[in-house]
Amino acid sequence: MPAARLSKKYKTGVTLIEILIAAGLLSLFMTAAFSVYRSGSRGFVTGSWRAEEQKKLQTFISALTRDLGQANSGLINIAADGSTSQIIATPLYINDNLYVFDAAEKFLNAGNDNWVCLLAFSISYPHIEANDVLVAAEQFGRWSGVSVWAKGRKIRYVRTGDPDVFKSVPAAFPAAIDGFPGSSIVGDGKSFVSDLDQNRNHTYDLSLEELALVGRGGDAAAPSGLELTFRSARYENGKKTDSEITQNAVVRLASQTVIVTF
């Protein structure tokens, strides 16, 4: 093969324009691939957050609705002759910033820096005096108090049979909340004992944004039920995203349960 033709053959190469075109196409491909990866990663994170938040919300709501359905408005004594008397009135206290009756929801922000009391109520079983005629022994009454608090978008749920703990954990009750028994009514040797089997003190690590309670049926002071709404939002790098969850629940209250707002 002539030297001139051989030299011409091996001088053939890639031009600068071809390199630029290839680099541009590679850049477009990498950008598209990264966008797909980022979108998928964000979707995975959001999906994981939704699943976890929903699970925690449902656990909390399940405990709250179960206990709210047992809330009662007084410690009752049943005498040997069958007559009943109320030892102390124990209303269902609800924060006025989240409760309305038969109206549009009024939401309370859950991102407070300090613990804010949302609810406080009693769950009790009557004291029954001994009955010699029926040969029935005395049955001590049982009591426990439930309080729900919000701070930093988390929920603190407390149920205790100790009146002193009830009024001080995780913080002291507002002055307006005063209709609960003390150690002179509940305790060893008293007609009512602490329902220790139901003790619970748990902080739900939620992303709760706001919550609301609406009373339905009856009247504002004694509704037949409550509609509860909880809204959570996901934050990323300290900024709220568009990922939100709303959970609703309906609770039927025991008859004659009285609501007092504070």
Keywords:
262 residues, alpha/beta, five-stranded mixed sheet, 38% strand, elongated
What would your notes on this structure say?
With 262 residues, the protein is of the alpha/beta class. The chain has one domain (38-261). Helices cover 25% and strands 38% of the residues. It contains three helices and 15 strands. It has helices at 3-10, 16-68, 163-166, and strands at residues 74-78, 84-89, 92-94, 99-101, 108-109, 116-125, 127-128, 141-151, 154-160, 192-194, 200-204, 208-218, 223-236, 239-252, 259-261. Strands 3, 6, 8, 9, 10, 11 and 15 form a seven-stranded mixed sheet that branches. It is elongated, with a radius of gyration of 31 Å. The N and C termini lie far apart (103 Å). The model has no long low-confidence stretch (mean pLDDT 90).
Termini separation (Å)? 103 Å
Number of strands: 15
The secondary-structure element order is HHEEEEEEEEEHEEEEEE
Give the biggest beta sheet.
7 strands, mixed
Q: How many structurally independent domains?
A: 1
What is the average per-residue confidence, as pLDDT, rounded to a whole number?
90
Poorly predicted sequence stretches spanning 5 or more consecutive residues: none
Continuous helix count: 3
Short summary:
About 25% of the residues lie in helices and about 40% in strands. It is α/β, with parallel strands linked by helices and about 260 residues long. The chain has one domain (about 40-260).
